Amino acid sequence: MNVLPLPMNVASLRPYASARSIRKGDGWIFMDANESPFANNATIDAWPPVNRYPDPTADVLRDSIAAFYGVKRGNLLMTNGSDELIDLLVRSFVRPGRTVAGLVPSYGMYRVSAESNGKIFSSVQLKNDFSVDEKAIFVALEGADLLFLCSPNNPTAGTLDPLLLKRILGGFSGLVVVDEAYGEFADAAGIPSAIGYVKRGAENLLVMRTFSKAFAGAGIRLGYGVADPAVISVLLRTKAPYNVNVLTQAVGLALWRKRDVMEENVRLLIAERERIAGECRKLGCTVFPSVTNFLLLRLPAVLSARKMYDDLIEKNRLVVRRFDFIPAWNNMLRISVGSPEQNDLFLASLSRLLP
Q1: Helix, strand, coil % (nearest 5) of the chain?
Q2: Alpha-carbon dihedral of residues 306, 310, 316, 320, nearest 10 degrees?
Q3: Against a cut of 0.90, is the pTM above it?
Q4: Chain CA centroid to CA 215, Å
Q5: Helix axes 59-69, 246-256, angle to 10 degrees
Q6: Ordered domains of the chain (ranges, CATH)
Q7: pLDDT tens-digit profile of 153-198?
């Protein structure tokens, strides 16, 4: 029973679930959250003073990232992870009585942020082949001010058709958010970023990227958005005054300046991803195409995803993600690409459990 009265949207809210909330202590092998298995070696020239507040807009980082993409400082906003940016977008751009739209299955924080801010989340179910139902999107957009599109999508690992994105941008009066958390892996595959639309003048688009995946910086909580300056100016007014701390800004800049290390790690992870995919197919799994650092696979009918999930935890303290989100495609696991040794452990466990 709640001691204090709560708003209905908070009382009924289902929070985002993470294995870190459940699997406490040492010795766990986490292949569930799509982090990098590489411990980054970013070093900073000097420990920044912590007795003063940080730069409120992290302009050194903004300038470095803007220069890489060929945009201006005013096109960028730095945030305390992408999750802060998602929440800011809901608070800033969704009017009373309007909704937030997004694909399902996709990243769960879109729904959590919408509902925690008292907004209805209008979900658009992907088709059984994980393609996007364009007609259903435009139906959902009729009452929406904000649309979240994750590309490459988590957990299905596929990318959004750029022509569909163009049609959505032209046919929707609200803000379209393309979450490119796995964008560096798509870059390596030669897939154009939606940032190109921003550079060409799209006024109702924001593209999110993060340091948590390819840059191996999940622990510092650093993300950024690229959009028209008018969109960024609204977010600068609504964000907390000092949202990105001095240590995160310093480490983030060090990581950004070592893009060659990031790019080499991406190549290694892609090679491991393809190795895991090949071995899983040999064992009878359905492996969906991926341009990310994870794989979505459907186990053979003789082995349940629940049994595999439990066995990995009990025997190896290895955590993956289990999904049963579409009746036609159940019995699924999402596997984050780990180190070669971790990947071998997963494959050995899969082989042992299959007849």
Answers
A1: 40, 15, 40
A2: 50
A3: yes
A4: 13
A5: 30
A6: 8-38+260-353 (3.90.1150.10), 59-258 (3.40.640.10)
A7: 999 999 999 999 999 999 999 999 999 999 999 999 999 999 999 9
